[in-house]
Amino acid sequence: MAAPKKGRGAAGGQGKPGRSLTLILIVMAALTGGMFLAKQPTPRLGIDLAGGTSITLEAKAEPGQEKAINKTNMDTAVEIMERRVNGLGVSEAEVQTQGTRNIIVNIPKGTDSAQARAQVGTTAKLYFRPVLTVTQGAPTPQPSASPSGKASGSPSPKASASEKATDGDKAASPSSKPSASATTQGRAVTGALKADSSPSPKASESASAEDQAAAAKLQKQFEELDCSNDASRAKAAQGSKAGDTVVACGQDDGLKYVLGPAEVSGTEVDSAKAAFDQQRGMWLVQMEFTGKGSKQFQTITKKLSTQQEPQNQFAIALDGEVVSAPRVSEQLSGSAEISGSFTQDTAEALANQLSYGALPLSFKEQSVTTVTAALGGEQLRAGLIAGAIGLALVVIYLVAYYRGLAFIALLSLLVSGILSYTIMSLLGPAIGFALNLPAVCGAIVAIGITADSFIVYFERIRDEIREGRTLRPAVERGWPRARRTILVSDFVSFLAAAVLFVVTVGKVQGFAFTLGLTTLLDVVVVFFFTKPLMTIMARKKFFASGHPWSGLDPKRLGAKPPLRRSRRTNAPTEPKEA
To answer: Phi first, then psi: what are they for 269, rounded to 5°?
Structure first.
């Protein structure tokens, strides 16, 4: 009977280790190249290592609403602020309460602190209000006629005020703002057109004596409002409610407005994003309304489209200031866009505020301090020293106990370190990942996890040699058993890291993220580097012959002699004597 041919049956289990090693080397080269192309040769550092800005905000309640400052509203404010700052591409920003009235925001170095301060401190209460009157922002002289008439059920200044303001704006526009006008030059709103069969709003009731008094008070506020004075602007922006007729300043156009009650609230904006219009060459903010908001927006735009200027405008009022006051010439519904003198930063900032909602409380900036990295640097040095000592002890143990196998383990640790470093560096500009002290601790812990995987595999190989097998079969037979153990161990570590990342906040998430990342890389390194390298080394004489310094000497391991089967021969039985 012919002996079986040697071929894939004998070596097929060993596969082609060269391909796996080539693949992981290509990946390492690509990540390293990408790191330098991205001009990010080092990982981004968190505020505890690189320094940054610390902002303290104090909650302020409206008169008679002190109970609004409670744990629920403070926690909601923290959540919204965190989403806003992260929406700017900032990671490792810490937002947490301090006491019952304060919120601390820590922003890492390298972030635009002015933009971040605007994001966390802005309440972002958004209303769409009809424009009743608009004129230049300086205080106006007392008019000769008292206000009369109402729009949308609310009092407004005299009927001729809008015409007079428009003419005055065109004639007396200041040189610093040569293009300012009552219609807010360059601003427009467009939206999806839909047919409307809804009835027109009911006519407002005639003004009562109380309404006339309120109109006179409003007229006085409007005349005294000086939009060039910060205190006057702030006073006008405070305390306005959705149902009030209010006075307000334009955010960047130098105009002042009388605005009717809010027709659509910012809570009805379902989503908002900044976009660049290629045709017009300008940045804009695109908004999508909820079902309820779409109907409200449809109603107000239909009503305004029949009015004369400036009462065919509606103001987009953010925290009591008019961001934009576009004209309406047709009924709009469903979606809208705000366009005008936006830069990319201002468009993204407004979209960010609209997307994440308004803060439940108003906040006053109590202090802004610069955090130095001196203390964090000392802690980092201490941590790196501890990590170096731990790594040295691991190397000593591997060399003393596993001898030649320590060479494979150290190369695997080096590959794991390169992959971890390059990926962390690339994650900085990609997702805003920043390395903080807990993250460094997670990376140090990962050294032990990775070394443990090598030890599991080496011990399985040794077990096979003790059973009397030679090295090459031992490498292949020990791999399936070691693979199962490694996968189960890494799955448990990754699950713990994932749970820790979900249930914690702040710096602890950095530890969990790094631990999870290095655990995944451990699987990649063991499968695509350690195992193929071990297969190749098993073919080398130094390891295959069981050299005393290879760590695989059968005599030192107490290997059993190979088991051999002996054939039993049936001896002829001698006849028994009678």
So the answer is: -85, 115
